[in-house]
Amino acid sequence: MQHKSNKRRNPSALISLVPIMIVGISLYFSVFLYDGQPHFSLFLGAAAAGLLGYFLGFSWKEISNGLINSINKGISALIIMLIIGMLIGVWIGSGMVPALIYIGFDLLLPAWFLPIVLILSCVTSVITGSSWTTIGTIGVTAISVGYGLGISEPIIAGVVVSGAFFGDKLSPMSDSTNLTSSLLDVELFTHIKHMLYTTVPSFLIALLFYTLLGLFSVKEADIGIEVIKYQEVIKNHFNLSPLLAIPPLVVIVMVIYKVPAIPSLTAGLILGGLTQIFIQGQTLEKFYQTVYNGFMIETEIPEINELLSGGGLSSMYNVVAIGILALAFGGIMETTGMLKAIVNTFLKFTYRIGSLITVTLLTSVFLNIFGGNQYMSVIIPGEMYRESYREKNLQLKNLTRTLEGGGTLTSPLVPWNSGGLFVLSVLGVSPLSYGPYAVICWLTPIIIAIYGYFDITMHKLDKVEEYS
């Protein structure tokens, strides 16, 4: 049965909130109460939005096309996620990540432990493009070593999360960074450069805070034995050749010359595979296993096993599935006019650029809290406020920067969000405990809002053609 367009009814804001409320309630049970996954909750929300749209007068073909078009917008980012999964496993197996950790151990000085961990987390996240990989490697190590220094685990977790998500935002290999820029048709490196205006100040403030905290709170301790033990295990299992620097350097050069993300990542993957085979002496069979299942290592130290195992194509299936469902949900909400109804309500409070920026930030935070997934907190507000930024003569890179600050960076601060749950599962520290110390994650949105109200780096639209 097909509805005629002249029978369509414009959804009210209250009706439009019903699918989001359904997702939020379902997530409470599936994620928070039963420690499950958010996939079905997103599917349920998409189904509810589609059903409401049908009764509002939309045909199934229109709803289906809206769903498909939304997924098409994010397909390149979803492919990048899969490549990143393969890359992480291969770069661990090739010895690049172990070498980075080995060098990092040499830099561990008690009083400077916190700022060093921040810098290592940032560098690792930029190189790998994955905040989760950084948390699973540098984070696990920092928690272990920091314990011997007598530093509170929430403090260490906060530092790691700050560095991991800071580096993630500035990495051209980051799935969320690619997703955000591609959804709004903003060139990747334009998006990353525009974020520097807000992330660099928050990084410097955080670095100063952690330095002072370390100098005045960390006691001297003998961590030499623990570090040497870890380094010996790494050295025994990997050939730490200077040639390991070639794959990341090639990727960095390609990034500098603005080579698109997919060929850059593919080059890094192939070079990493050659390194794994010819420098580490692993078989072609092991390489293929690593590409799909990730790299696995077994040593006498459980922490090292956790530290140097992970990645693989299969590790991204869960994230890609969430991305597809979130895109489908957002596409149906947009096609049926429900996003517009919600936007029109919120836009009543956006008289100035600063208020538009603040409302965008709050919407992303709201969806992180009630949506349970950082992709939703970027995708849905991106569709909601696209036209509003155009109307205020703002380039869309202002919107992508705001979405990253309000959506991606605050996701690890919510205990039942996918970001917060991941940190809890890997580091064993609740977001409620480490949240105050994750300075970059909550300070960056504040800086973005301040920039909006004082019109700082709010780049205006010069040509209408830029948005055509």
Which short descriptors sum up this protein?
single chain; 468 residues; mainly alpha; 22 helices; 73% helix
Report on the structure:
This protein has 468 residues and is an all-alpha fold. It has a domain at 75-316. It contains 22 helices and no strands. Helix 1 (13-33) runs antiparallel to helix 2 (39-55) and helix 17 (353-371) runs antiparallel to helix 22. The longest helix is centred in the first third of the chain and has 34 residues, at 60-93. The protein is globular, with a radius of gyration of 23 Å. Belongs to the NhaC Na(+)/H(+) (TC 2.A.35) antiporter family. It is a multi-pass membrane protein.
Structural class: mainly alpha
Number of helices: 22
| Outline | globular
Strand segment count: 0
Oligomeric state, counting identical vs distinct chains: single chain
Beta-strand proportion: under 5%
Flag low-confidence runs. 464-468
The H-and-E topology, N to C, reads as HHHHHHHHHHHHHHHHHHHHHH
Distance between the termini: 35 Å
Largest sheet: none
Mean pLDDT: 82
Helicity range: over 70%
Query: C-alpha Rg, in Å?
Result: 23 Å
Summary, kept brief:
Belongs to the NhaC Na(+)/H(+) (TC 2.A.35) antiporter family. With 468 residues, this protein is an all-alpha fold.
